[in-house]
Amino acid sequence: MISPAPPAACDRASHPTRTPEERKSADELITAWALTARSGDPEAVEKFVRALQRDVRHFVGYLAADPQAADDLAQDTFLRALGSLHRFEGRSSARVWLLSIARRAVIDSYRHASARPRLADTDDWQAAAERAQERGLPGFDDGIALAELLDALPAERREAFVLTQLLGLPYAEAAEFSGCPIGTVRSRVARARAALMELLHEAERADPVGAPD
Questions:
Q1: Domain stops at, among 63, 88, 122
Q2: Final residue of a structural domain among 92, 122, 152
Q3: 98, 142, 162, 167: most buried by Cβ count inside 10 Å?
Q4: DSSP string computed for 116-180
Q5: Does a structural domain hold residue 181?
Q6: Side-chain-facing half-sphere of 53: CA atoms under 13 Å
Q7: What's the pLDDT score for residue 44?
Q8: How far are the Cα atoms of 14, 121, 186 from residue 170, in angstroms, in the given order?
Q9: Do residues 15 and 106 share a domain?
Q10: DSSP 8-class letter at 18
């Protein structure tokens, strides 16, 4: 059994930490909750879900074919995870393990959507941006929606950027998650940031009135 956590422990673990040490400590705590939850401990299950629900919600919101269905996808992710939690052995962090399940849920949603007529030609990223917009590049506070810019990136670069820059995953864990070398993740993030900056500058050039001084 894990030691009882302070009332605010789940909230602290569910937000990006400021240092690698804090992130590692939070991930170790969450993984401990997941391992304890395998036996059906209701308190551990609640802490595990609460600690990662924000990351899962944001992740599927940015990657899903229909971001407006992010709540359903997040719920589906946790249902799948709790159903297979008895097989989790802690070889990776619970965060990486759960985001892998979330990715499969998104892929399944793509497959399901492809079998139905589309109601629109484009995906609505605005809802996800309003729920989870975090700004790490100059100019985002000037009214340019991050989600709209992310939509223009290739899927692999978008995923790498979301994992490391928005969810705060260390590059090593993002590489483990994506099944590629850490150098590849760094390259994808660098190219994503360069592309986002270029798109931002293009938007400013197209709308000089709205560009920052």
A1: 122
A2: 122
A3: 98
A4: S--S-SS---HHHHHHH----STTGGGT--HHHHHTTS-HHHHHHHIIIIIS---HHHHHHHHTS
A5: yes
A6: 15
A7: 96
A8: 15, 35, 10
A9: yes
A10: S
Label residue 116 left, alpha or beta by phi (over 0 means left) and psi (-120 to 50 means alpha). Answer: beta
Same domain, 16 and 118: yes
Distance CA 145, CA 14 (A): 24
Residue 72: give the domain boundaries. 11-122
Alpha carbon distance 67, 199 (integer Å): 22
Residue 142 above 50 pLDDT? no
84-101 average pLDDT score: 93
For residues 65 and 61, give the distance between their C-alpha atoms in angstroms, rounded to a whole number: 9
Q: Are 93 and 151 contained in the same domain?
A: no
Look at residue 113 and tell me whether its pLDDT is greater than 70: no
> Does 1 reside within a domain?
no
Return the half-sphere exposure (C-beta side, CA atoms, 13 A cut-off) of residue 3.
Answer: 5
pLDDT in tens, 121-138: 444 434 443 444 444 444
Residue 153 belongs to domain with CATH number? 1.10.10.10
Locate tokens 């994808």: which residue? 188
pLDDT tens profile 79-90 = 999 999 999 999
Tally of domains within the chain: 2
Q: Examine the domain organization and report whether 107 and 17 are in the same domain.
A: yes
Determine, yes or no, domain membership for 6.
no
What is the model's pLDDT at position 139?
Answer: 40
Spatial CB neighbours of 96, under 8 Å, sequence gap ≥ 6? 169, 173, 176, 177
